[in-house]
From TrEMBL:
It is an enzyme of class 1 (oxidoreductase). It holds the Pfam family P5CR_dimer. InterPro entries: 6-PGluconate_DH-like_C_sf, NAD(P)-bd_dom_sf, P5C_Rdtase_cat_N, P5CR_dimer, Pyrroline-COOH_reductase. Pathway: Amino-acid biosynthesis; L-proline biosynthesis; L-proline from L-glutamate 5-semialdehyde: step 1/1. SUPFAM superfamilies: 6-phosphogluconate dehydrogenase C-terminal domain-like (SSF48179), NAD(P)-binding Rossmann-fold domains (SSF51735). It comes from Aquirufa aurantiipilula. The gene is proC. GO terms for molecular function: pyrroline-5-carboxylate reductase activity. This is Pyrroline-5-carboxylate reductase. It is found in: Cytoplasm.
Length: 266
């Protein structure tokens, strides 16, 4: 297996590091294309793979090309890349907002998979959904799934259009959790805790609640009710959340993220 990654920022290197960690590719078979000299020098020092600063004929020898550049940089990248693609290679895009059809047209190449990861992939705990062009065979879909699973969890979508919803739900999702945690910590500080103590109380509560949710056979509503005794403190908080339409506001925000993803893809 030989892999090229074009664009070696945080997400590109999250994939690279996971591939190396799980022995899915050898460093000598991992081509890292990074045009930023400072970033490239760091990767050279780390001996992260075969580091180069230009797209060249070396691309022609790999099985998989991963596109991990900023969407605004893609037009120039595609002009260079399409010169060196050969039949049978698989192209996996983790760029935001660029549909499979546009990638196919810009590269004059059919075998495209588009994925939407999230930042926990940096820790090998990401959630990535992906879709493929009709021309991509089942074996290549399974190959992509296996590689993506090294960064956390992967799910295959039959409909590419659902990737916009994925962007709003799990792609942007980490920020929603951070937003909730920040506001809980701020509330703790306002009630008299120092920031470190408030952060400890909230983060451990979140961690414990996650594991309880994962191991319990109860529904989320049942878990909420298990904490919210009638006339108690939790019920008072939930009543306020309802009055302020916190849940509705959260859902509207997720839909807004989805809609923005649709706009960016046009």
């Amino acid at each position: 297996m030989k892999i090229a990654i074009i664009g070696c920022g945080n997400m590109g290197m999250a994939f690279a590091n996971s591939f190396i960690q799980y022995n899915l590719v050898k460093k000598e078979d991992l081509l890292l294309i990074e045009k930023n000299k400072e970033r490239g020098d760091i990767l050279q020092e780390q001996k992260a793979g075969v580091v180069v600063d230009t797209i060249s004929e070396k691309i022609s020898s790999v099985n998989l090309v991963i596109l991990s550049v900023k969407p605004q940089d893609y037009p120039s990248v595609s002009e260079e890349l399409k010169q060196y693609l050969r039949p049978g290679q698989l192209v996996l895009s983790i760029m935001a907002g660029i549909p499979i059809k546009k990638i196919q047209e810009s590269l004059s190449y059919p075998l495209i998979i588009r994925a939407m990861p999230n930042t926990p992939a940096l820790l090998g705990m990401g959630m990535t959904a992906f879709a493929s062009a009709p021309e991509v065979g089942l074996s290549d879909i399974r190959l992509a799934e296996n590689l993506i699973n090294s960064t956390g969890r992967a799910v295959f979508l039959e409909e590419e259009s659902l990737l916009d919803a994925v962007t709003g739900l799990s792609g942007s999702g980490p920020a929603y959790f951070f937003y909730l945690i920040k506001n809980m910590i701020d509330a703790g500080v306002a009630m008299g805790f120092d920031p470190a103590m408030s952060a400890l109380l909230v983060k451990q509560t979140m961690l414990g609640s996650y594991h309880l949710m994962q191991t319990s056979d109860k529904s989320l509503d049942e878990l909420i009710q298990a904490v919210a005794s009638k006339g108690g403190t939790t019920e008072a908080a939930l009543k306020t959340f309802g009055e302020k339409e916190v849940g509705e506001g959260l859902q509207k925000g997720i839909f807004a993220a989805r809609d923005r993803a649709v706009e960016l893809a046009k």
